Amino acid sequence: MTEFVTSADGTRIAFDREGGGPPVILIGGAMQFRAFDPATVEMAHLLAGHGFTVVNYDRRGRGESPAEPPITLDQTIDDLRALTELLTEGADDAVALFGNSSGGAIALAAAAAGLPVSKLVFFEVPLDAEGGAEGAVFVEELRERIEAGDRVGTLETFMADMPPEWLEGARRSPGWPTMLEVAPSLLPDAESLAWTQSAPRAELWRGISAPTLVLVAEQTQPLMTSAAASIVASMPDATSRTIPGTDHRWNPHGMALVIAEFLVG
Fold first, then answer.
1. Which of 232, 145, 152 shows the shortest CA–CA distance to 190?
2. 73: helix, coil or strand?
3. In sequence order, what E strands does 79-154 have?
4. Residues 34, 43: Cα–Cα separation, whole Å
5. Residue 90: is its pLDDT beyond 70?
6. Is the N-terminal amide bond of 70 cis, ω within 30° of 0?
7. What is the pLDDT of residue 92?
8. Residue 168 in contact with residue 196, Cβ under 8 Å?
């Protein structure tokens, strides 16, 4: 059954909570939310079966967490803080975070902002080269499309660097209207990715002491492999691992097991 938590600005954030044990929050990437992402819903159920309290939530501006644009990274971190405080009941406890794709960059930003994090797991965070300017340009282009109310242009801009067949497949899919609906919520994804280029990464992530696991699929783009290497090289306690998968996707059973093994290790 859907539960709700109120964020700092009064926005209600919808989530599912399942299982019992140490808390884990799942942070979706671009356009992911519970009703539109059955793989993560299944993985959440399986991970809960390994002995964790698992929260799968609709990010601001998606699903049952409606919000008007502009939707920002700072607000998204506030939403995570509200979920964390609910899960820990105000105690001096920490939560584990799983960030999928650009959700991993959001998890990094939240941990760097002081969210109490016990462990971090990422899957294929699409980081451009350290110190580059691509991210900042990307944010401005995306913001312009969102402010103009151009949802098609927002999706086209966001997916411009992805394989062309991904955009064409999205256009032809029955999910295209849903993608258009949540398009304004993509700004925090872009902001978090740009933030990873805003200073040397070792400096940005110096304060993140939580053990971190960086995952990439066996069949992936070179960008994902180099991004994983950059994260591992720039964090105090990070390792990488390759798992079965292709086209930026993973198997729910396999992912739940990998996360569980790392969290209890």
1. 145
2. helix
3. 95-100, 117-123
4. 11
5. no
6. yes
7. 66
8. no
Q: Are strands 95-100 and 53-57 parallel, antiparallel or unpaired?
A: unpaired
Q: Which long-range contacts does 161-170 make (Cβ < 8 Å, 24+ apart)?
A: 163/221
- 84 vs 55: CA distance, rounded Å: 10
Indicate the residue type of 212.
Answer: T
127 Cβ neighbours under 8 A, 6+ residues apart: 105, 193, 196, 197, 223, 227, 230, 231
pLDDT of residue 160: 87
Tokens 């411009």 correspond to 160
**42 residue type, one letter:** E
pLDDT for res 164:
84
Give the Cα separation of 204 and 163 in Å (integer).
Answer: 29
Give pTM, 2 decimals: 0.96
What token pair was written down for 174? 């029955």
How many other CB atoms are there within 10 angstroms of residue 104's CB atom?
Answer: 31
Task: Give the tens place of pLDDT for each residue, 176-198.
Answer: 999 999 999 999 999 999 999 99
Start-to-end CA span in the chain (Å) = 31
pLDDT band at 91 (very low <50, low <70, confident <90, very high): low
Q: Which two tokens stand for residue 4?
A: 């709700």
Tokens describing residue 199: 């200073």
